[in-house]
Write a structure and sequence with these properties.
By secondary structure, the chain is α/β, with parallel strands linked by helices. The protein has a single domain, classed as Rossmann fold (3-Layer(aba) Sandwich), CATH 3.40.50. Helices cover 41% and strands 7% of the residues. Strands 2-1-3-4 form a four-stranded parallel beta sheet, sandwiched between helices. Strand 1, helix 2 and strand 2 form a beta-alpha-beta unit. The longest helix has 23 residues. The radius of gyration is 18 Å and the shape is globular. The termini are far apart.
Length: 253
């Protein structure tokens, strides 16, 4: 006889358990990342690692507030045109990203049901706009969905100077987060990389969608060598609270 126990993973539920979980007052956390180049020192699934760890920590905050929450299986493919020229990158059309989210939202967060909270760690502007459009359509149709976007104020101002300058791709920001999550970091390579101070956000506004053309020939921006596990822990505290606060507001607590 198996003892009953709560589980944070929605995918591990049976269909009968899922029926009980899919109710008003529950939060479903959907980690969203990408498969793309993150410099010579971080893995292709860096954004997935960050999104899953943020969602895990946000769930702990929600449960501490008495809000039942589950982690959905992550999405690992995204709009990633900036890194498309680098081996291992997979870039979906924005329409494909939106279609997938439309389907998930209708299935799991219908009117009167749980809140679907997107926990996104892939920051390419076209990808973020695709998430925003999908959530807006879902909400317009009566579904319950929320997308706390850390690239917007006031959130962006809490995440450090490198992030504010738009130089966080595979730099000190993301590298610190991967370190704190226990993910793979090639330390000897990381410590050998010189800072790349290009303002990626500003460069993207010029219209070029390619990291090499934007000044990142090795698919990193910022300062990976300055990353620390302690900084990653600090950043996760902020990211998890952003997600948990947005989900709690959407639930109505």
């Amino acid at each position: 006889m198996t003892a009953e126990r709560p589980t944070p993973a929605f995918g591990s539920l049976t269909t009968d358990e899922a029926e009980a979980a899919l109710r008003h007052g529950t939060v479903l956390l959907l980690p969203i990342g990408s498969l793309e180049a993150h410099g010579p020192h971080l893995p292709l699934d860096t954004d997935v690692i960050i999104a899953r760890e943020t969602a895990r920590r946000a769930r702990a905050l929600l449960v501490a507030r008495g809000i039942p929450s589950y982690l959905l299986p992550h999405l690992a493919y995204a709009r990633a045109d900036c890194a498309a020229a680098f081996p291992g990158t997979v870039s979906l059309a924005a329409e494909a990203v939106e279609a997938q989210l439309d389907t998930i939202t209708r299935a799991l967060a219908p009117p009167g049901g749980p809140v679907l909270c997107l926990v996104n760690a892939h920051l390419e502007p076209d990808h973020i706009r695709a998430l925003q459009r999908a959530v807006e359509r879902g909400v317009a149709g009566g579904c319950r969905a929320v997308f706390p976007d850390q690239t917007r104020r006031p959130h962006v101002d809490r995440l450090g100077e490198e992030f504010r300058r738009g130089g966080g791709h595979a730099g000190g920001y993301e590298t610190s987060l991967v370190m704190a999550a226990g993910g793979r970091v090639e330390e000897s390579i990381r410590l050998s990389l010189p800072p790349n101070p290009v303002d990626l956000a500003a460069a993207l506004r010029t219209g070029s969608p390619d990291f090499r053309a934007l000044g990142g020939p090795r698919a990193y921006f910022g300062d990976p060598a300055a990353a620390t596990c302690a900084e990653g822990e600090r950043l996760y505290g902020i990211l998890a609270s952003i997600v948990a606060d947005a989900a709690a507001v959407a639930i109505g607590t």
